[in-house]
Design a protein that fits this description.
The protein has helices at residues 2-34, 39-60, 68-92, 98-105, 108-120, 127-144, 157-176, 186-207, 221-246, 251-254, 257-271, 279-296, 305-311. The chain has one domain (2-311). With 312 residues, the protein is an all-alpha fold. The protein contains 13 helices and no strands.
Length: 312
């Protein structure tokens, strides 16, 4: 019994290490890849490959394929998560350092909390939550404002706007996923969404003309290795660890990746990506991460009877 407990603890620690370190490092891998490969094309290759592997694995295990309604749900979520969120993230990382891109994307729990207040009514606007939201907005302002004199140039505003839209899109997908008909198997659901998302990203890349003139032979080995890392470590291994954890640990504990990932990304970007780490970056990052920490650790209000009736 004691040996089994130790093995379980070891697996749990390994899974947390994966979602902390691997997911945090994917931002630098994206940055490396988009320097040489068009952004939407790179994203399409990542999620098409990962989606095919995961979907094929689920089918081989005997999982039922999604129904027509479930495929339609997967399509809607794929638009929000992969086409908008990841598409904008990959595009923005040509303009914004990887560490700061991770920090901006860390605002997802903040936007999700806002959606829960305004639409689902599963959260009440308390003083603590209001303070958390203000700190998140303040962190974004510090990173993007020209008027804040903290040394170092503010990050590219267009890139920052793309990242915020991406974060809002992911938040909307998180809310919708609770109501849409999806496969019971989390692996099948994610595989289907990644597969559809990869197709949508490929179509978007073609529409932007990213395939014209692209020469795979001209891409360095480092960029290809970054893509392989994103597919295997970021999508397949990372997702598997996340699903395993979410069934064994509290959502609050698992959700800590939202403020650990940016720290990992900022450190990796500084030491390996040669990205600047000044007072502006440190202060803006601190504001946003404290905001996320306050949101994630907050107790949720019980939904009212009206909300339950709407959800049914």
């Amino acid at each position: 019994m004691e040996a089994q407990t130790h093995r379980q603890t070891g697996k749990t620690l390994l899974a947390f290490a994966i979602i902390y370190l691997v997911w945090g490092s994917t931002f630098l891998a994206i940055r490396v890849g988009v320097r040489e490969v068009p952004p939407l094309m790179l994203a399409a290759m990542r999620f098409l490959a990962a989606g095919l592997v995961l979907y094929g694995w689920m089918v081989a295990r005997g999982e039922r394929s999604p129904t027509r309604r479930q495929w339609l749900s997967a399509l809607l979520l794929a638009v929000l998560i992969f086409l908008l969120d990841y598409g904008l993230l990959f595009w923005a990382e040509r303009r914004v350092p990887s560490g700061l891109a991770a920090v901006m994307m860390a605002t997802i729990p903040v936007f999700t909390a806002l959606a829960e207040i305004l639409f689902l009514r599963t959260q009440k606007l308390t003083v603590r939550l209001a303070l958390a939201l203000l700190m998140g907005v303040g962190g974004v302002a510090v990173l993007t404002s020209n008027s804040v004199r903290l040394g170092g140039a503010p990050i590219d505003r267009l890139g920052a706007m793309a990242l915020i839209v991406g974060a809002i899109s992911w938040s909307a997908a998180s809310i919708l996923s609770r109501k849409l008909p999806l496969p019971e198997s989390k692996g099948m659901s994610s595989g289907a969404q990644m597969l559809v998302g990869g197709v949508l990203l490929a179509l978007a890349a073609a529409a932007r003309g990213e395939f014209r003139g692209f020469q795979p032979a001209a891409v360095s080995q480092g960029a290809w290795l970054a893509l392989v890392y994103l597919i295997v470590a970021g999508s397949i291994v990372g997702f598997t660890a996340y699903v395993w954890l979410i069934h064994r640990e509290s959502p609050t504990k698992v959700g800590t990746y939202a403020y650990v990932n940016p720290l990992v990304a900022v450190v990796l970007g500084y030491f390996w990506g040669r990205e600047a780490l000044g007072v502006r970056t440190i202060l803006g990052t601190l504001f946003i991460l404290v905001s996320v920490l306050m949101v994630i650790t907050m107790k949720r209000a019980k939904p009212s009877v009206l909300v339950l009736e709407v959800k049914d």
